[in-house]
Amino acid sequence: MKNEFLIDLNDRESSWIYPIVVKTPDGRIGEEQSTILMGEGPNRIFCVTDSIMHAIPEGTDPDSSAMAHEHRFGYETFFCDSGKMYLYIDGKKCLVKEGDILHLQAGQAHGMAFLEDMKYRGFFHDMDIIGDAQAVNNLRTYMQVDYNDSEFAKARGGNDFIVRERPLFQEVPAEEVSAVRHPDRPLAEYRLDGVTMKVLIQRWENAGVCELCCAEMEPGFTAEWVKFPRHRDLLYVRSGQVRFTVYNEEFTAKAGCLVNIPKFAPHSLVALTKAQVYDVGGQTYWASFLHDYFSIKTYDPERFNKSGTIEELKEKFGCQIKTIGKAG
Ligand SMILES: [Fe+2]
Fold it and tell me: Which of 32, 111, 220, 227 lies at a C-alpha separation of 20 to 30 Å from 80?
């Protein structure tokens, strides 16, 4: 039986809800997209989509196919999990490849030309468009209206998707484009027992709503959360295999799996192999917590070793992990 806390993006049959096919102006299939999670609360956090972005036809000029647009509201973080594309952003063009992560902010125009099909996993907040997924699906279910129907497209055009003109740009390596992130060049990196924590997107780049950290775990690394965690956790296993216990359910999440853990649910994990796990829910203030943890450790070891210091710090920054260690 499929575990309700495990969403395997490799298994489209069971993980994709409200699938849509988005056509380009010239009528080809540009994107097969599906909603995975709808988002919750005033900022619609925990909102996820999964897409296959289709490559532009051979012989097409990528620069003229960039489909540049902007959103007045909302923040988008995309995991590029296969293929290659050109990204046009901030007056620059760069090559984006499997393993890269894009972070696009409100009002930041972006265009993409896909050179190969790409698995494109999106994590959003404050995004207007995603909230329509169910309404769009109803229309198709009850009336068989095509998503690309011209009259329907006009109604959808009222949504927050502002088409922009062909981008002007200077071509640079991806390392020079701040919207392109990669775990090999984190904004900050902290080494703990059995795990390296990497800050990839800061909270201030998300209007204070969330942040993105990656935990690079060694085999046997374990983490146990407090008994009744205050916030929901959404974790994305991008590589390796991790064994989770949520309530009394045990299951293994492998690369391409989301682990969606309800608030108050007791949970723990053990890395079965070397693994990369991203905190895509982004509710813990990891960047602040880790910085201050190491600041106290460096500058005030006496206070660091005093009982209560770290507990207080965890409370201050919403860190719900009780213990970490190595199994065996
Ligand atoms: Fe966009």
Answer: 220
